[in-house]
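Can anyone check this?
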Amino acid sequence: MPTLLHIDTSVFPGEASASRSVTATFRKEWEAQHPNGTVIYRDLAAEPLPHLDGLAAAAGFAAPDQRSPEQHTAFALRETLAGELEQADVVLIGAPMYNFTIPSTLKAWLDHVIIMGRTAGAEQTTTSGTPAIVVASRGGGYGPGTPRESFEFVTNYLGKALGDGLGLDVTFVVPELTLARSNPAMADLVELSDASKAKAHEDAAAKAKELATRFAAA
């Protein structure tokens, strides 16, 4: 049975988080199709990873038999996280926009799992072609043609880091204007916000069904 790696990063719980609610929709549909499948779940807000340090970074560039005892210890977490990514048949990531970019907890995860010559930096990486669905929620509007288009550093960055870096096959699901119902200044955008939210849930469910069907036929 296929394995889903599910990563949430929002600092807000449950339905208070747009990204969590949409990743939950994807996961619910995925598990309905694969009730006996494996789900590896990491809540990086509840259990943040340590930032990559010099020992762990250097260990990634050294052959395993050339690492010092200290490097072996420091690399253990990177090995675990990279192994989870390599095991996954599908990757699901909640990536809300914080101050125009991704949560620092997600950046820490990326720093650990991007290992040159293994998951990255090669024509064919150990993660090449793995489908990745990224729920990139944001409180405002940052799409093409909007006044804040140039402030968008979530899909631009993750498209490069996950797609070009790790070789994942990335699909973005983007619920926008999520603050419209709580910000009086955005009151005239509530209808657009609700439509964006509904579409994000529909897109997530549809993508889960599509991938479930693909793996069922494999």
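Reply from J.R.: I decoded it. The longest helix spans residues 190-217.
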